[in-house]
DNA sequence: AACGCGTGGGT
DNA sequence: TACCCAAGCGT
């Protein structure tokens, strides 16, 4: 744990995060500098003691490995990502090695993580990083955002977790924790990148070191303590500061997001088609795809969309394969 | 802004 | 059973 670069005399105990005086965020009138949010120190202490030891958190994890983990974690649970992450990096330890293989191999290796388009984009990332960035994952925000499949969350996650830079990471966990602890609402409202970044920025510590750890810590809290359905407030390090708790845990009264169905959708059909292609060692015939879904029109629509997405290659001989 | 995009475990 | 959910992105 490094120290902050303020002029304030350091009052430290061991390697613990700086012990602040617990006042709410605001402006220190005497010094004229912004004070730190009261959430920070308890959260950093809790994270230092309680963080799960996930493979992408090991010291020495490369920026490329962090990027791989972040893309895999886009909408896929941690426990399913872990083995896939190890296998992927075992095979492609750097962008150049992945770029030297085919996109189809990336899709096959992706297996059943879901949303196979991510595999395609991660492969395209490897190509871009190899060709445009000399094999080095960029740390510049705009350069990261220009990479395929890298959006507002992933770009900042790479800055924070790969390069240990101060960056306002916002994911669904962080949105929920801020909604509760800061705004006293049971759940976050509809996502808005601008609003969400502003909210996170207002509690983000000033130094690179405390900032990136804070991002990791608040995300971890949302994942394991401040859970969406059943928060474990009895073991929450932010309970004393939590606005939601202080307000008596009011129930959410905002608009309810409409959950998306899955059974019977094109997505399900696409999943079955991709399953056939992943399992096959080479190109497959149309008949092998026909059997996955009885509705011919819907099956054809799903197949066409996979071709349009670049996930399936129609061959001149009429067969179909993963992309080259 | 709202929707399409996989998968499998939990309730 | 039929939902809900899990470190988003692209359009």
UniProtKB/TrEMBL annotation:
Pfam families: HhH-GPD
Domain HhH-GPD: 72-224
Similarity comment: family membership: Belongs to the Nth/MutY family.
Protein name stated in the entry: A/G-specific adenine glycosylase
Cited InterPro entries: DNA_glycosylase, Endonuclease-III-like_CS2, HhH-GPD_domain, HhH_base_excis_C, MIG/MutY
Listed CDD domains: ENDO3c
Cofactor dependence: [4Fe-4S] cluster
